[in-house]
Each structure stands twice: as C-alpha cells, then as structure tokens.
C-alpha cells in the first residue's frame, strides 16, 4: 500500500460515522434474519398441514442463508451502487435466501402456489429454471417475494429470494456450485468436455426426477393433493 492510500485509509473514517454505519448494517441484517424466519414458518406450517392431511411431507428440508457482506459489496459494485444500507434494501433481492428442497417436481409448484396465494406475500418476480433450464443444466424455481415484518418501529416490507427444487436438482446444483459456478473455469483447458459432462449429469437428474414423478402419479393415494 503506498503512503497516500495508507494515510487516506487512516484519516478519512470518522469513528462516529463508522460506528453508525456498522450499527445500521447489523440492524438491517437482523431485519433480513427476521424475514427468513417469517417465510420459514410459513413453509413449515404448510408442510405440517400436509403431513396431517395427506400423510406425507412435500418438503424434504429447508436451508437458509444471509448473503455475506463481501458478496453484498461485490453485487452492489457490479450494479454500480455504493455499499449503503439504503442501496442494499432498494437494489438487492437476495440478501435473505431460503432454499426449499422438495420430494417431487409437482411439490415444487404446489408449495410455490400456496405461498404465492397468501395475501401478505407479494410475488415480485419468478424465474422458472425448471421449465427453462439454464444453458449449463441448472434447474430450480426462483421466487422473489416481499413479506411484511412487524418491528417495534412499525411494519416493514422485506424481500427474500426463495429457491424451490427437488432433491435431485439440489444435489446437482450443490456439486456444480463447488465445481464450477463463479470459479472462472470457463477459461480452463478442457472446459468444453467438463461442460458436456455437467450437462449429461443434469440430464440424468431430469430423467430420475421425471421417473420418480411418474411413479408417484401411478401410486394413486399420493395423487389427491
Ligand atoms: P449464492 O452464492 O448462491 O448466493 P440476480 O440475483 O438477479 O442479480 P441472477 O443470476 O439473475 O442474479 O439470479 P438468478 O438467476 O435467480 O440466480 C440467483 C441464484 O441462483 C444464485 O445466487 C445461485 O444460488 C443460484 N444459481 C443461479 N444459477 C446457477 C447455476 O448455474 N449453478 C448453481 N449451482 N446455482 C445457480 P448467487 O448470489 O449467484 O450465489
């Protein structure tokens, strides 16, 4: 680091401003944790009701995450915005993330519709990568939702990204994420062969998901949902 940069770094921050910003950021992250809890409870309620009504659970498991500060910073920078609480709330939809892993393909649409029909949920955007998989083979159903959360200062609409997928889709996406996603392997020698293999494995998962769905349809007692 040269002298100029070092002195700028040491002299510029006003300690009080820094403390205020840190407090604002952690306050906002607390709000995102709360919207995750709201959405997770809604999903668990639906799953509980299903297990009583239909003697099975459409949801295998739910995973949640808050986007890491470095990723928030990178995404805002990519979009051309400064790293401020206001910009995070206004421009990012995926700080709060909820991943719902379902048993069967039709469970995905059942869960998505039941959520979308709740009158306190506003669906901002849907990307159906099951009907329209990404070129690399990625499949999942994505919803950006806005849910009111009641804090002492009043009701605040908070946004969250919900990714709904089968166990098979999740298995593939998790491994592909480790192997490739954001790792810049596109520049590697032999990338085309790797890409073909990933597509082939994605196709195998599609076939397995479809077969399991067909078997479920054949077993009539699962069919009356
Ligand atoms: P992370 O690390 O999971 O948080 P946008 O959010 O709209 O700016 P984009 O790409 O248009 O960006 O949104 P999209 O397509 O809905 O994808 C967002 C998330 O879906 C990603 O979040 C991943 O979690 C997942 N995803 C999308 N494409 C792929 C893929 O090809 N492979 C895998 N494994 N996951 C994918 P983040 O923030 O990029 O990453």
Structure, explained:
This protein has 225 residues and is α+β, with helices and mostly antiparallel strands. The protein has 7 helices and 5 strands. The protein has a 5-stranded mixed sheet with strand order 1-2-5-4-3. The protein is flat, with a radius of gyration of 21 Å. The N and C termini lie far apart (63 Å). Ligand 0O2 binds next to α6.
What is the structure about, briefly put?
The chain is of the alpha+beta class.
Topology of helices and strands:
Blueprint: H1 3-11, H2 15-54, E1 59-66, H3 69-79, H4 85-91, E2 96-102, H5 105-116, E3 122-128, E4 141-151, E5 154-166, H6 167-179, H7 191-218
Parallel strand pairs: 2-5
Antiparallel strand pairs: 1-2, 3-4, 4-5
Helix pairs in contact: 6-7
This protein binds ligand 0O2.
Residues 67, 94, 127, 134, 136, 138, 142, 173, 176-177, 181 line the site of ligand 0O2.
Properties at a glance:
single chain, alpha+beta, five-stranded mixed β-sheet, 53% helix, 20% strand, flat, disordered N terminus, binds ligand 0O2
């Amino acid at each position: 680091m040269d002298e100029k940069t070092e002195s700028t770094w040491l002299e510029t921050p006003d300690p009080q401003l820094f403390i205020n910003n840190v407090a604002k950021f952690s306050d906002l992250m607390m709000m995102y944790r709360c919207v995750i809890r709201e959405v997770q409870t809604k999903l668990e309620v639906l799953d509980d009701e299903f297990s009583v009504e239909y003697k099975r659970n459409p949801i295998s498991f739910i995973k949640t995450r808050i986007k890491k500060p470095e990723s928030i910073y990178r995404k805002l920078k990519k979009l051309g915005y400064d790293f401020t609480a206001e910009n995070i709330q206004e421009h990012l939809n995926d700080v709060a993330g909820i991943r719902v892993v379902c048993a069967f393909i039709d469970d995905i649409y059942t869960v998505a519709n039941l959520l979308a029909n709740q009158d306190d949920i506003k669906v901002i955007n849907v990307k159906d990568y099951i009907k329209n998989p990404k070129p690399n083979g990625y499949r999942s159903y994505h919803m950006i939702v806005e849910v009111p959360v009641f804090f002492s200062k009043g009701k605040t609409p908070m946004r969250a990204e919900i990714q709904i997928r089968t166990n098979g889709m999740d298995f593939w996406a998790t491994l592909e994420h480790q192997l490739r996603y954001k790792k810049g392997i596109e520049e590697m020698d032999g990338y085309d062969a790797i890409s073909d293999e990933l597509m082939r494995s994605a196709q195998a998962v599609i076939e397995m998901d479809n077969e399991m769905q067909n078997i479920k349809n054949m077993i009539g007692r699962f069919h009356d949902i």
